[in-house]
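Hi V.,

You were right to ask for the full record rather than a summary. Here it is.
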Amino acid sequence: MAKRCLDLLLALVGLVLLFPLFLLIALWIKIDSGGPILFRQERVGRGGIPFRILKFRTMSPGAEDQVLTIDYNRRVTRVGRFLRKHKLDELPQLLNVVLGEMSLVGPRPEVREYFKLYPADVQRTMILFRPGVTGPGLLLLFNESAFLSRSADPHQTYVSELIPIKARFIMQYAAHNSIIGDLRLIFCTLLKVVRS
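Predicted structure:
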């Protein structure tokens, strides 16, 4: 209950303070490439229940059908590259937090295709929590898209290299999570974003 109250308080404050930035980003996306402002994609949520994650659209309209996206993909818009680099495309997930579909901190939500590739014990652990806007392993894998863009086979690299890393951090988070730890992760994530 304390975690949910903290999520709700910080997400609502964030939405109020960042509202002008939301408007600027929305206008920038419209001017740059037209089309919808938000991107929605189904992810695995708490209890294994699917939900639609919200992000600012970073790819050309109608081009966001692939599960993995990497830096320098020709379908990523100019605005999209900037938003991704500074993690600003993730800001609409504050709405997911307010709706109770996500938490500010928790395991990052996966599409079902990749969720199924985690070990069974990790899958069971992941769905105990609301997925997080930030989470265990995110700071280490902050430039995940750039890392994948250097691979000849991004899908295989994600499966063989990144999923094991994420799985380890998820289990560590489950064993040691706390409100203080969540606040520390939020602070470190904000610091990383400011420095990016």
